[in-house]
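Late entry, evening session. Most of the bench is empty. Finally got around to the prediction I had been postponing all week. Sequence below, unchanged from the version circulated by S.P.
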Amino acid sequence: MDKKSFGAWAENLASRYLAKLGYKIIDRNWHCRFGELDIIAKKDGLIHFVEVKARRNQIFGWPEEAVTISKQQKLVAAIACYFGSGPETPWQLDLVIIEQRGQKYYWQLFENIGE
């Protein structure tokens, strides 16, 4: 599986995982000039912007290490673009990591990152 296919597979897995946790997926791969929002979901009246990071190995570090302060700032700018000049809506930035260990995959949700 090439990098693009692996990324799409990881986002599909993350979407199914979130749906099982009770999230309603609103949109995926939303783009603006500031970047891409992987998954936009809603749960309990809150909009969740979910970044998905997946790794097949740790050559480039752990998946959560890829969400640097700079990356978080870009995501927040994209979130502002998503809302435009619309009404203030409660939201948070979350992260789903997916790691391959041997022949198995493990995933975890980190809620409200960046605080």
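Two things to note before I forget:
The domain at 3-110 is CATH 3.40.1350.10 (Trna Endonuclease; Chain: A, domain 1).
The beta strands are 24-32, 35-43, 46-55, 91-101, 104-110.
Will write this up properly tomorrow.
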